[in-house]
Amino acid sequence: MPHWLGSVGSGLTRLSRRLEERKARAEAEEALPEWARPVPGEDAAPEPVPQPAQEPVPPVDPPSDAPAAPVPPHVPPRPDPVAAVPWGVRVAAEAGWRLLVLAGTLWVLMRVISAVQLVVLAFVAGLLITALLQPTVAALKRRGVHRGLATAMTFIAGFVVMGLVGWFVVWQVMDNTEDLSEQLQTGLTNLKEWLRTSPFHVTQDQINNITDNLTKALKSNTEEITSAGIQGVQVIIETLTGIVLAMFTTLFLLYDGPKIWRWMLKLVPSAAREGVAGAGPRAWATLTAYVRGTVIVAMIDAICIGIGLYFLKVPMAVPLAVFIFLFAFIPLVGAVISGALAVVVALVTQGPFTAAMALVVVLAVQQIEGHVLQPFILGRAVRVHPLAVVLSVAAGGLVAGIGGAVVAVPLVAVTNTVVGYLRAYGRGEVPGEKV
């Protein structure tokens, strides 16, 4: 019985296979053109029987009046979809999705930085202060001073000097506020008189209307001013918190800077560690040169413009000089803002002639700074194109306000140094540094 069942099963299998072959043959015949189909009722051609070799028969040309045999149409094969896309489109697509990934990464990074903006700005401020004070620590250590003592001496001296500068500015402003308000009222009265007698022909009624509109605007915006005052208290608290964080960051970077750098190198993949180890010292040298050069240039600007304002008898010449020093850390924009502030104070308190002379002093000092001091002091190591400076300052200001504008240019300078070194390192043009 099992043998009989096996025979029946094998027969059914052969039968089904023959049916499938006939079905496939019928479908193939239907797919053929009309002229190539076999005549119905005609048996399939028998298999060819091998014949003995014969002499080749020369071809006989068909008669001229014989009908030409039909030629089957040629259907070209469909190309590969990848090959069908133009090369330029493929390159644009490859570059496009990579740019999208980079843009997404940058967007996430900016969101994270915005969420912890205070911590980031405090760390960057501590990094800049460390770049300013670290050469002093290194000099003391070369003279045999213990690392901890050298760090403590430099840290205390640096922040004491910065605190004294801030206290001096506040003291000068508070001490001259009463005189400045009196001179401001006198200057506004003189300005009104000058407008009435000037070629602009401004009438007293127009001046009164402007004054009334300003008064109404101040009264209508009392709530906004009050909320701005509350926000000002919050800003003061955040500023104090940031100062404390910056102080701690500076202290630990001065004391354990090399150890922190070695720990960060361990986070880098081993294949890229050698290049990063070589780029780090060069980036730090660029940052140090930028901070020291900017401090020197800012001091020269503040001293020269302060002396000019003092001889022009502009009130609060010393506080204005300190403001010019502080705003010099914002390239291009800071010089314009601080110079305009000095000119406005001179205009309101001393008149148009003194304001014009103050403007001449400010422009002269800034021209000397841009064409002599910065190229000589900063050098080529931190030279950044003016367009890159403007764009970076604008982007930093939009992202993080004044703090972002301050750190934008040194960030661009350091990035330029790192990218240039890594490009040269990838081409083998600089020797690698072992970690």
TrEMBL record:
Organism of provenance: Streptomyces luteireticuli
Family according to the record: Belongs to the autoinducer-2 exporter (AI-2E) (TC 2.A.86) family.
For the keyword Cell membrane, the answer is yes
Taxonomy of origin reads:
Bacteria, Bacillati, Actinomycetota, Actinomycetes, Kitasatosporales
Where found, per UniProt?
Cell membrane
Please classify the protein's predominant subcellular localization into one broad category. membrane
Q: Which domain of life is it from?
A: Bacteria
Per UniProt, what is the membrane topology?
Multi-pass membrane protein
Query: Keywords, A to Z?
Result: Cell membrane, Membrane, Transmembrane, Transmembrane helix, Transport
Q: Where is the composition biased (Pro residues)?
A: 47-77
* InterPro entries membership: AI-2E-like
Question: What sections of the protein cross the membrane?
Answer: 152-174, 235-255, 289-312, 318-348, 389-414
One Pfam family name is AI-2E_transport
Signal peptide coordinates: none
User: Is the Iron-sulfur keyword given for this protein?
Assistant: no
Output this protein's name: AI-2E family transporter
Q: Where is this region: Disordered?
A: 20-77
